[in-house]
Design goal:
Distance between the termini: 26 Å
Number of strands: 22
Helix content: 40-55%
Number of helices: 26
Length: 590
């Protein structure tokens, strides 16, 4: 949705008219403006050159005139031509601020106050109305040959807005259709949304431009119908043939996969999650150590990557103040880069670590450029799949420094870590500090980070919680719990404050095995474990006896299990882990 001076003038005029209107004598400029409003779902054609406001358009027109009448907003005639009353960045600021109990600060407050949506640090009623209008409106999806050519030329982002190709009103069309978003508060950074990225990908893979109309809702519906194996009419088959989406045998071209995902986003709703990921330089070095120890093991049987031997190989200055080597190994396993298992050497049984396929990919990337990769850098890319989100300048620069973004597009490293943020099976390590920080974030509402009064260690823990997808930090500097974070907070509520490490990946594996092999007692909301089941659980965990006993003891200390049952807190914990594993639409890479 986009409303600048030109759109506001037309919207006000139409609202005050209060009835269907003819555009037969309208000039080209005003027709273009009307087209943007139609694409945004605010006006609709009702006849030959006849239009009317939609429900959302009526509400927005009423909002605009009331704000002018009450003196909250100047008449659009007095606005600067470049003034953006409503745009993706404004919607973002309002949505993010709602999570902080509608309190607004700093540059965000200044930007929204200028538009009449904030007064004295709090939302005005107009902000809530605009939010409702945004929900109620449903944009059109129409890509002309001119717009298609613009999309082909541009880079998907995130990137600096100043680098966008010069064009006519293409950017306004894209924003009206929610195909591009700009950063808060000043639109310095842009990014195509998930919808925009998938349509651009189809165009760059060969979607044919044979006439003025390249793509619309009908074409997307037809692609979805074909993709789901439904019978096509002759007309529908021709629609796809003309655009190169199928061949004469009816086989779909690979680019149709992008349009099928675009159809899902357009019809069923946008991406809502902002998955993140992180790995420190120290942890990357540990991957290298483990790989080298296994290679040495091929010739020296008494060499293998157990904790003691790994620690001996750490011959560099350890920078990760919040994690010991042991906890760093847990953390790597929690992010799906390592797996631990029992290893027998003679009569000795010990726990060893080995790289997963994801760990091997990360090691290969880190060998090219050893550095830390942060949640901020990764989410600067993943957030662009949402409907109105683009990273702020600081986040974008962080992603560039980490080699995740270059020339307004994700690098191969950027694609790797964003893919891992979605694909890896998370079995998170939760330290005592992370647990305490988790408890400081309100269960349902967000909180300004500055109000949390965090120590340096706690601020690091907050970033780590975001990387684990338990917390999301918004561009307005507000921290909020994710769905998984809410469940995790609930499950750890009874853990004593002095427990240094309440949860390890081994605890997660233990609880998952108990759920799998135990029996649910509905009335008690517990999963009971009989003695026979313990033997199966021990075998499934595949760890040495000492590690097994320590893991069971930790799970009991953390109130997740009793002597013979998974507690209600343990059930909630597994629900959090299940939520971490929940996927949205599978992303189609370009």
């Amino acid at each position: 949705m986009i409303v600048t001076k030109r759109h506001a003038l037309v919207l006000k005029k139409l609202y005050e008219k209060g009835e269907e209107f003819s555009v037969r004598e309208w000039e080209a400029f005003d027709r273009e403006t009307l087209w943007h409003l139609e694409l945004a779902g605010l006006v609709k054609p009702v006849g030959v050159e006849m239009y009317d406001l939609t429900f959302a358009g009526n509400i927005l027109g009423e909002l605009l005139t009331e704000m002018i009448r009450e003196g909250v907003l100047k008449d659009p005639k007095e606005w600067d031509d470049s003034f953006r009353w409503i745009g993706s960045e404004v919607i973002s600021m309002i949505r993010y601020s709602k999570l902080a109990r509608s309190m607004v600060r700093g540059e965000i407050a200044k930007a929204l106050e200028e538009r009449g949506f904030v007064k004295e640090g709090n939302f005005t009623p107009y902000a809530y109305t605009l939010d409702e209008v945004y929900y109620a409106s449903h944009p059109r999806l129409i890509v002309s040959s001119k717009l298609a050519e613009y999309l082909r030329k541009m880079v998907e982002g995130p990137g600096e807005s100043s680098t966008l190709p010069v064009g006519g009103d293409e950017l306004l069309q894209l924003e009206a259709m929610r195909m591009i978003a700009f950063s808060v508060p000043k639109s310095d950074i842009y990014a195509l949304t998930g919808l925009g990225q998938q349509i651009r990908a189809a165009l760059r893979k060969g979607l044919l431009v044979t006439d003025e109309l390249v793509l619309d809702e009908l074409v997307l519906d037809t692609v979805a119908k074909a993709y789901e194996g439904n019978q096509l009419s002759d007309f529908e088959r021709n629609v796809l043939l003309e655009r190169g989406l199928i061949d004469w045998t009816g086989e779909l071209h690979p680019m149709a996969e992008h349009l099928y995902l675009a159809w899902k986003i357009y019809k069923k709703g946008p991406y809502l999650m902002t998955p993140a990921f992180q790995i420190s330089e120290d942890e990357a070095r540990l991957l290298e150590v483990i790989d080298k120890l296994w290679k040495r093991h091929e010739k020296e049987e008494d060499v293998f990557p157990e904790l003691k031997q790994i620690e001996k190989e750490v011959d560099w200055e350890w920078k990760r103040k919040d994690l010991t080597v042991k906890l760093a190994l847990y953390n790597l396993e929690g992010f799906g880069l390592l797996r631990s298992r029992e290893h027998r050497h003679g009569a000795r049984r010990t726990l060893v670590y080995e790289l997963t396929s994801y760990g091997e990919e990360v090691l290969e990337d880190q060998r090219k450029n050893l550095r830390s990769v942060t949640a901020v850098g990764v989410k600067s890319i993943t957030m662009t799949k949402k409907e109105f989100a683009a990273p702020n300048v600081e986040w974008y620069e962080q992603a560039r420094r980490e080699g995740l973004v270059s020339d307004a597009a994700p690098t191969s490293s950027g694609h790797l870590y964003t893919r891992l943020s979605v694909e890896v099976e998370r079995k998170p390590l939760i330290t005592g500090t992370e647990m305490k920080v988790l408890r400081k974030v309100p269960y349902k509402a967000g909180v300004f980070i500055e109000d949390m009064i965090l120590s340096e260690e706690e601020r690091t823990a907050l970033d780590s919680l975001e990387a684990k997808n338990l917390v999301e930090i918004l561009p307005t500097n507000v921290a909020t719990l994710t769905e998984a974070g809410q469940l995790m907070k609930r499950s750890l509520s009874a853990v004593p404050d002095d427990v240094e490490v309440p949860v390890t990946p081994l605890v997660v594996r233990l609880l998952q095995a108990i759920r799998k092999h135990g029996g649910l007692q509905m009335r008690e909301k517990r999963i009971r474990i009989n003695p026979e089941s313990w033997k199966v659980i021990e075998k499934e965990l595949n760890v040495d006896p000492e590690t097994l006993n320590n893991t069971i003891l930790l799970a009991r200390i953390s109130k997740l299990i009793t002597e013979d049952a998974l507690t209600e807190a343990g059930v909630a914990f597994l629900q959090a882990v299940d939520e971490l594993a929940r996927k949205e639409y599978p992303w189609v890479e370009f």
